[in-house]
Amino acid sequence: MRRRVLAIAILAAALFLGAEAQAVQQGHQTERISGSAGDVLEDNPVGRLKVYVYDLPSKYNKKLLKKDPRCLNHMFAAEIFMHRFLLSSAVRTFNPEEADWFYTPVYTTCDLTPSGLPLPFKSPRMMRSAIELIATNWPYWNRSEGADHFFVTPHDFGACFHYQEEKAIGRGILPLLQRATLVQTFGQKNHVCLKDGSITIPPFAPPQKMQAHLIPPDTPRSIFVYFRGLFYDTSNDPEGGYYARGARASVWENFKNNPLFDISTDHPPTYYEDMQRSVFCLCPLGWAPWSPRLVEAVVFGCIPVIIADDIVLPFADAIPWEEIGVFVAEEDVPKLDSILTSIPTDVILRKQRLLANPSMKQAMLFPQPAQAGDAFHQILNGLARKLPHGDNVFLKPGERVLNWTAGPPGDLKPW
């Protein structure tokens, strides 16, 4: 009985939390993010680096997209939009001799199943073929073995090119990419598939679609905890326990009947509106540590509750994740209710105020056309911060680091 009274009291408080937070936001519109985040988010990389974009045959990119336009809408579409952005960006140079970085536009996630899921089985051969092409026709790859080149590899386990973690780990990162910089969706610390020096980015979430579902900012946040998604993946994990390392199953088993938790496998048409009516949005790991849910939470001002041990978050040097989110260890999921209800109201209001900062939202999005401070510019900032290249980037005459025949036998077949 006492627990029920407590739940009702907290839920009643949440009804007014959105309006109170809005009032606070209106009084602090010019507040800068603490630490270096405000400076980094407002930084302009133009003038500090030049990028040369290889002109590859369309079979590596545009032809794939023409064959299946669904590639534009899935969460791995950052590789497509990054290519489009660079083609018209002020950092692009047509003179490779003055380039700081070289970009190879290969769409590795545009081989879709009938249900729209990308399978990266052809990706290693396609990437190897593209690298052989640029190494044959331009001198710049060979002088550094790709150390001044970057690639966008946004699939679940990046350049390991497999959708199952165990097999991805067994494959490892494509050997030819060992010296290159990878721009990939956020991963996991000390993971085989997260290369040192990678630039971690958010998955793609459609900005126009989210914009179309905005509701008045003073709408009360009447939902305390919100989540829509799978708790069990019975088709790929029939015995249970492996999917999300059991964290999602634990959420369901412990809180399916808790009045503070609005959780379900249903994905209603009001999904975006519901997030804007919620105080906390659960962002648990799935097969990989990340999903577009984190982007949606930030854009809609819902405090992300990140449940993914050792996650590497996007643009961690630009976004103060510790200040805007709540981190819960996977083993502590059964205590989620007590963890969230114990957070002081002033802390919640501060997190909401920081989330309301337009720069925070902008940094998570890939808008068309690009806008100042967006995810494109955060990627460029990451590349600019890696300059100037060190003495170890360019190889001595005759020196070779990478083995062109290294990798699983299937990767060596012609593409």
How many whole angstroms does the radius of gyration measure?
22 Å
**Lateral arrangement of strands in the main beta sheet:** 1-2-3-4-5
The ordered H/E elements are HHEHHEHHEHEEHEHEHEHEHEHHHH
Task: Count all strands and give the number.
Answer: 10
Tell the overall outline: globular
- First-residue to last-residue Cα separation: 66 Å
Instruction: Give unreliable regions as ranges.
Output: 1-40
Count of alpha/pi helices: 16
Characterize the biggest β-sheet: 5 strands, parallel
Strand content of the residues, in percent? Answer: 5-15%
Mean pLDDT: 88
Structural class: alpha/beta
Q: What is the helical fraction, as a range of percent? A: 25-40%
Domain Exostosin GT47: 48-343
InterPro entries: Exostosin, Exostosin_GT47
Family: Belongs to the glycosyltransferase 47 family.
Signal peptide: 1-21
